[in-house]
User: What shape does this take?
Amino acid sequence: MSINKDFKIYEIIFIVIAIIFIVINCLGLFEVVHFTNNVQNIFQAIFTMSIGIAYIRKSKVTGVLFIITSILFITSILL
Assistant: This one.
């Protein structure tokens, strides 16, 4: 069984962005740093959007679902 190591540069960039924003979101969740709910939702939207972009080439359904989730986070911020 071999592991597919064919990553594009944009996938690596968006995975790094996702890791950064999930760490920031966890810091807010554990109240190490205090964020408002809107800021937490922005971080979650950036996380899910970057995961969706990174995985859309591997699995179209998963990538599209992550992108739809991030759009829903953004609309919850605006409303």
Observations:
- Residues 9-78 form one domain.
- The chain has one domain: 9-78.
- The chain has a mean pLDDT of 86.
- DSSP finds three helices and no strands in the chain.
